[in-house]
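Quick question about two entries, pasted in order.
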Amino acid sequence: MSIEVRAATDEDLDKWNGYVERSPQGTLCHEHEALRVQAEHADAKLHPLIGFKGQEPVGLFPVFEIQKQFVTTAFSPPPRIRVPYLGPAFLNMGKLKQRKRERRRKRFMDGCFEWIERELAPKYAHLRTSTAFEDSRPFKWNEYDVTPEYTYVVDLDRDEEDLLMTFSSDARSNITNTDEDAYETYVGGDEEIRAIVEQVRNRYESQGVTFDVPTEFVLDLADRADNGAVKPYTLRVDDEFVGGILALEHGDTTGRWLGGVRTDADVDVPTNDLLDWAVMEDALDRGLAAYDLIGADTPRINRYKAKFNPELRTYYSIEYGSWGMRTVASLYDSVK
């Protein structure tokens, strides 16, 4: 039986988030309301593709269409808003043997490629997969260029003391020897989201890097997330905001999305070590399995992240288009 790929109907969308929750590749940003928020703030048209083998769902692939100077482009996720992962998410394939799983996955992806070419015919396309996306060959077979990218993930499947003992000595010391009365960490709300985004924007701009993530996008994503959550972990000293981390939580994983930048506050506490520990401690208390540090491609930052003894994980950056169209794509900020 062949696989039918179509733009999701209203009936499909009613079940979409349940499919996301069941998919190993599903993330908070795959949820339908999260996709709509992304489209609104990226000035894009959302095409939520879904594939069926008979009545059985086999995959989801949210695609964003953007028109730029009369050129049609396709993204997943859209540019500028710094969503870490999106791309295809598969369903009902875990129990299949390798040959059948590969055949079904390829047929779903081929159906998506045919739909995208028929309905959009983009001159340029770019996407980033989740870390659970393992087989990029269907993209290679359809003339996409595939580049492996890397992130660090901390395994939380252990108790608090055992986890601390895996950290570097300076990380353990910063966490355990800092006077708990000297600071406060907590999960805040809209006020803290605004403070964290503004701090990140100021830090980027001080380094000459554009940071175009709209604060309202983060607030809308936090407000409209269904099965996941955007959690602003915040650190204050003497009731003054010092720093924060916006974590994206979905399923058994929480991720270090925005924040954790160097603070300009003159305080004698290891701000980011304590913030990262606050995220992990909260995740441990609620039985989560992993903390994705989101990114392992910058040597300077890697030195900090590696002290939590994370595992290296791979995801994929995938691009399509002629050299000229890739030059046009430079009109977009933060494509990659």
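Here is the second entry:
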Amino acid sequence: MSATIPVMIPMLGEEEAQAAADAVRSGWVAQGPRVAEFERSFSALVGAGQGVAVSSCTTALHLSLIALGVGPGDEVIVPSFSFIATANAVRYVGATPVFADVDLQTGNVTVETLDRVRTGRTAAIIAVHQGGVPFDVRAVRQAAAEWGVPLVEDAACAAGSTAYGAPVGAGSLISAWSFHPRKVITTGEGGMLTLDDADRAVRLRRLREHGMNVSAADRHASAQPILEAYLETGWNFRMTDIQAAVGLVQLGRLAGLVAQRRRLAARYQELLADVEGLWAVRDPAYGESNFQSFWVLLSPEFGVGRDRVLSELAAAGVSARRGIMASHLEPAYQDAPPTDGLPNTERLTRDSLILPLHHKLTEADQDHIVGILSKLVGSSAS
């Protein structure tokens, strides 16, 4: 049967449709004034001085490494426990991804897991706020500074999350964001870089637009001809004004969406508290998650394997997903530098699953999902 409770539904309404239509009618359908407004609004929301809109979070990570001078011969520490784009961005610049393990409860790298794989060739670190759960920015930023290694924050899932009372992204060297439909807010596809360094932001804007010294939007807006120059090799990583128009509406929804997700997550946690052998993701002591993903971890006491749980949920009309992937186990990374073992990563990717969480999820839906999980405890071997 087809799923009746999807794992995720983007919150898109008539306001977004109207904003996109207005952008089309304006004639600005490529990168233009709405992109600039979206950059200003989003960077202000996350407490950063600059925003650079791009075509995806993957391209944001790519450009961040270019801007930091990372290239062939360098190593970049990344969590294996992340969507594969995090590691791929390192390969795009010719560097080598080195996989770090994560904390079992947050799914995030720690100072200890990073230090374990740090070498003299470490040129950068990409730390992920996994599933919207913030990593310990205070500890990791301090350690990276002491090591003299630039830290890029992969905040793809973390719009609306906080750490130490501030928005994720505030105070970071560079943060990369995603607006894919699986995220809390979306522009269809699209991404953003936020940072405080105005000079670096100028270069990032140039790099996203073929290395041009003046943007196409500025050239078209000028009353006089402007002869552009191409100062370095760049890419076509631009966001469109149609996407930005949708994003501006979505920004107005963010606080309400996060509040709703946190309420539903708290109810999941309460309902699942007495399910033997199952642990549900929670806020870390130092911050609050937007619960972009609500994942649960199964232990041997649960008595049923993760894959069977997914099958039973699907049969009951519930679309759940496996937990976050372990990139080092994928065929694309079989030739990556060997690890000394990533036990937490491998347990999480084997034994965790993501439950439905979205604005249309009802309490009856949650009761149905938790009821299935409760009945499965110890039912039989997988």
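Reply: The radius of gyration is 21 Å. The chain has two domains: 14-251, 254-376. Hope that helps.
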